[in-house]
Amino acid sequence: MTGFGTLMAAAADKPFDPQAATDTWLNTLPAADRAKSDAYFEGGYILQVWNLVLSLGIAWALLRFQVTVKLRDLAERFSRRRYVQGVVFVALFILVSTVLNLPSDYYEGFVREHRFGLSNLSVGGWFGEQVKGLLVGMIFSSLIGSLLYLALRKFQQRWWQMAAVVVPFLLFLVVVLAPVFVAPLFNTYKGLESAAIRDPILAMARANGVPADNVYEFDASKQTKRISANVSGAWGTIRVSLNDNLIQRCTPAEVQAVMGHELGHYVLNHVYKLVIYQSLLLAAALAFANWFYGAASRRWGGRWGLRGIDDFAGLPLLTAGLSLFMFCATPISNSIIRTTEAEADIFGLNAARQPDGFASTALKLAEYRKLSPGPWEEIVFYDHPSGRSRILMAMKWKAEHLAEFPVSAPVVAPNGK
Ligand SMILES: [Zn+2]
C-alpha cells in the first residue's frame, strides 16, 4: 500500500516504453536495406520535380511548334460535329503525349523498378500494360474531355465553375467503374483461397459490418514484388482486395493487421470522403488553370495560333496549368490522404489487435518507403504515414493493452522477405 510497494511492482514489471520499442523495431532493419529504400524513395522526390519540368516542356513544345493546332485542324476535317471533333482531338492528344513521355515513363516504371528489385515485369509485359493503359485512357479521356470542350464553348470564362460541379460525379463514376471494368484488364481477382488466412479475415470483416463477398485476392505478383492491399469501388462495387505478395510473404498476424487497416477505409467511408476532398482540390486547380490559360494566351496565344479558351489546340496550356497547381498542392493532397491513412491505421489496430504484426508490416513496407523521414519531409512527400510513425502508433496502442500481450515484447517476427 506504500510507495515502496508500488516501486517494487514497477521495478519487477518494467513499464513498456513505446518509444524504446519503436527504436527496437527500427533497428531490426539492416542498414543496407534502409539505405536502399531511402535512396529509392528520395529519388522519387527528384522524379516529381522532373515530371513537372517535363510536362511543362512538352506542353510548350506542342504549342510552340503548333502540333496541337495541326491535330485540331485534323479533328475538324474528320467530322462536322463538335463532340466528335473533341473525341478525335483528345484521343490524338493523349497518344502524342504518351509517346513523348515514353522514355521517361520507361525509366521510372521499368528501369528504376528493376534496379531496386521491385518489379516482376518483362520488357514486353511492361509495354503490354502501357498499351492497355493508353487505350483505356484514350477512350475514357476522349469521351469526357470532349464534354469539357462543349462546356468551354458554352460557358467560356465560367467553364471551370461548371466543371467543378461535375467533377465529383465524374470521380464517383470512375471509382465505381474502375474496379469492375478496368482492374480486371490488368489483374485477376478472386475470393480468398487459403482457409487458414481467409477465415480469421472474413470473421474480422463480418464483425465490422463488411460482407464477406467483398473481400478479394489478386495476382499483383504479375507486376510487382510489393505487398499491398486496397479498398476500391463505391455503392455496390465497393470491395477490399489483398494482393498475393501480401498473402504469401506475411504471417497471419501481419495479414490481419493489414486487413484491419483496409476494413478501416471501408467502414470509415474513406472512398466517399476522398472523392469530396479531391473534388475541392480539383475545383481550385481548374480555377487556377483558367487563370493560367488567360495570362499565357494573352501573351503568346497569337503566335501559337490559338483562337480562344474553347480551342482544342490550347489543351496543353490547360494541362500545364493543372500540372503546375497539382505539383504545388502536393503537400496538401498528400496530407489529406495521409490523414485518412492514419485513421485507418488506428481503426485497424482496434479491429485486428495485432500491434506487432502491424509494426512488422510497416517494416516490410519500408522496402519502397523511406522508414524514418524528418517531420516536414513526411508532411510534404508522404501519402501514408512513415514506417516510424506507424510503428510508434502501434507501440503506443500496445502500451495501453499490455494485459493482452506477453510482457517480453517487442517480439520481432522473423522477417520473411
Ligand atoms: Zn490505406
Share of helix, binned: over 70%
Q: Write down the secondary-structure element order.
A: HHHHHHHEHEEEHHHHHHHH
Quaternary structure: single chain
Number of strands: 4
Instruction: Report the biggest beta sheet as strand number plus sense, adding barrel if it closes.
Output: 4 strands, mixed
Q: Which small-molecule species are bound to the chains here? A: zinc ion
The CA-CA distance between the termini, in Å, is 50 Å
How large is the radius of gyration? 25 Å
**Overall 3D geometry?**
elongated
Number of separate helices: 16
Strand order of the largest sheet: 1-2-4-3
Question: Which percent range describes the beta-strand content?
Answer: under 5%
Mean pLDDT: 90
Number of domains: 1
Structural class: mainly alpha
**pLDDT < 50 stretches:** 1-12, 411-417
Overview of this structure, please?
- Helix 5 runs antiparallel to helix 6 (123-155) and helix 11 crosses helix 12.
- This protein has a 4-stranded mixed β-sheet, sandwiched between helices.
- The protein has helices spanning 3-12, 18-27, 31-64, 67-78, 82-115, 123-155, 159-186, 195-207, 244-249, 252-267, 270-304, 315-328, 330-352, 355-365, 375-381, 387-399; strands at 189-191, 215-218, 229-232, 239-243.
- The protein has one domain (33-404).
- The radius of gyration is 25 Å and the shape is elongated.
- Residues 1-12 and 411-417 have low confidence and may be disordered.
- With 417 residues, it is mainly alpha-helical.
- It contains 16 helices and 4 strands.
- Helix content is 72%, strand content 4%.
- The structure holds zinc ion.
- Zinc ion binds next to helix 10 and helix 13.
